[in-house]
Design goal:
Blueprint lengths: L21 E12 L2 E13 L5 E2 L2 H17 L3 E5 H10 L1
Bound molecules: zinc ion.
The site of zinc ion has 8 residues, from loops.
């Protein structure tokens, strides 16, 4: 499961500081699954202008879960996945 808090849409208030101004950004998502480290680069997100809290849209968090599931299935100790490449491949499948 994706650990980070997810939120619907892009214009919701920040859960951390209740600021409603967010900027579009990309981040590196990292998750530790039973000792396997999975790193997903170039993940689109909304970043709180005030406190830097990261929010993912439903669409992005769903794709992140798919990427993590695929990476877990390969069961490497360490996986680095590019979000853009991973979601591109997904569309063709
Ligand atoms: Zn905030």
């Amino acid at each position: 499961m994706v650990k980070e808090r997810t939120i619907n849409g892009e214009n919701k208030m920040c859960n951390a500081c209740f600021n409603d101004k967010k900027i579009k950004s990309t981040t590196t998502f990292t998750i530790d699954c039973n000792g396997s480290l999975i790193v997903v680069k170039n993940v689109p997100c909304m970043e709180c202008e005030r406190c830097g809290d990261i929010l993912y849209s439903d669409d992005v968090s769903q794709k992140l879960e798919n990427i993590v599931e695929e990476a877990k299935a390969r069961s490497y100790d360490f996986s680095v996945v590019d979000y853009e490449k991973a979601t591109g491949i997904e569309k063709e499948a």
